[in-house]
Design brief:
Oligomer: single chain
Strand content: 15-25%
CATH class: Alpha Beta
CATH superfamily: NAD(P)-binding Rossmann-like Domain
Helix content: 40-55%
Number of helices: 7
Shape: globular
């Protein structure tokens, strides 16, 4: 039986746990060769082992996304080995400290924007040519409801997600008539991740959906001919 992403090259950031790991495993289960990126090699190796044990294929690429030179080196290595990227999942992000806007720590705010916004722009810039080499390049960025619906104490994280959405949608508009690249924003909703546990320490984890549910929704979306700039909100 032919798998839906057989022969595709996918790259997932923040792939060591949570939604990133679940999406990487789901893509690999459907035939994609998945490049796994995150800062911690040990955690990436565990995800890679899970993919191999399930009969899939993956390559780990430990790196710090806040280091633009590392991203450029990764893009060069992917270009040399595979010559294209069919699916790029921009999942890596940091929550930061939830606080009133008037009390946001400037140094932390800068770090948050470096990862959640600046690094994402560098990823898009570095992998644009590789996405264009695909017959149907797809870029998917993970966001949060607070990016479009501001909430008290979430100003720093929400502002970073609003900026990310604007970047991705602007890129979508730039490439839609020049290539086969299409983009989508995914709001995963209430999901059982370490980030959510940090934001809602008193919440019962079993009361929210598992990351695999989001992963399956992303894969289902990737099978459709969605219009660039598409937004998927995962309910539940």
């Amino acid at each position: 039986m032919t798998k839906m992403f057989e022969g595709k090259i996918a790259l997932v950031t923040g792939a060591s746990r949570g939604i990133g790991a679940a999406t990487a495993k789901a893509l690999a289960a459907q035939g994609a060769h998945v490049i796994l990126t995150a800062r911690t090699a040990k955690d990436l190796e565990a995800v890679e082992d899970g993919i191999f044990d399930a009969g899939g294929s993956a390559t780990i690429a430990p790196l710090d996304l806040t280091d633009g030179d590392s991203i450029a080196r990764l893009a060069a290595a992917v270009t040399e080995r595979w010559g294209k990227v069919d699916i790029l999942i921009l999942n890596a992000a940091m929550l930061g400290t939830l606080s009133p806007v008037s009390a946001i720590d400037g140094a932390e705010f800068a770090r948050l924007f470096t990862l959640n916004v600046t690094a994402q722009q560098v990823m898009i810039a570095s992998f644009d040519a590789l996405l264009r080499k695909s017959e149907a390049g797809r870029l998917v960025a993970l966001t949060s409801s607070v990016g479009s619906s501001p909430r008290a104490f979430w100003g720093a994280y929400g502002a970073s997600k609003a900026a990310l959405e604007n970047l991705v949608d602007s890129y979508a508009d730039e490439v839609k008539n020049l290539s086969q690249v299409r983009t989508a924003i995914v709001d995963p909703g209430r999901t059982r991740t370490q980030m959510r546990a940090k934001a809602y320490p008193g919440e019962d984890p079993s009361s929210v959906k598992e990351p695999a549910v989001v992963a399956e929704e992303i894969l289902a979306m990737l099978q459709t001919e969605f219009v660039s700039g598409h937004r998927l909100v995962v309910e539940g």
